[in-house]
Amino acid sequence: MMDSQWNFSALKINLGSFTIFPTLLWNKTNALLVDTGMPGTLAALQEAFAENDVPFEKLSAIIITHQDLDHIGSLPELMEASNKRLAVFAHELDKPYIEGTKPLLKLSGENLTAEKWASIPDSLKPFYENPPSADVTHLLTDKAELEGYPGIEVITTPGHTPGHVSLYIKDKKTLIAGDALTCIDGKLAGPVTQHTLNMEEALDSAAKFLHYDINTVICYHGGIAAGNIKEQLKAIITK
User: Fold this and answer.
1) What pTM, to 2 d.p., does this model score?
2) Which of 124, 132, 174, 238 counts the highest number of beta carbons within 10 A?
3) pLDDT single digits (tens) 123-134
């Protein structure tokens, strides 16, 4: 019988201009990583594994919540560093962007304004011009358990991007929100308007979380929020 009991840690990774919180999940047999940071984050991620006493060699799968560069950036590095072929999970709608067959939505067309381009540090512009990519091996489906990893439920949460997903860790009553929510000083906040492609859809997605018994939320931007989660969600949705 496969182990459905999961430990988790929100990995605090300082990228200089901002901090991110990828999530490490592990049990007796496997470790999973949710999102990968910007290009060049591999060493910091490996250090975070060690700080949690999780051997990097235990990593068996990576879940990508969506296509943005700060989530897919170190995916190829992780795959190259692994001693095995890693499973890569993502939603069908974001798959072609992660695989590089389509340009990242926020880095092309009307979404990339001159003002946005000017705000990107020169050292990062090559990554925006030629984003890292990797094959997606498994597709994520709404309300389904993560294939091969019982106890983790997929919640499709479009809005931030069309194929954005969040994850619910059942035994820990913990939501891995990705960018569907943010956290400020331990309190939940809504999706960031300037980085969200469809805010109405994003708020509809946030409303889906009301159907879950959640004690803790991990936001990729802001870290952990806990306590009165439903009340905090209602305030965001009805704002």
Assistant:
1) 0.94
2) 174
3) 777 777 789 999
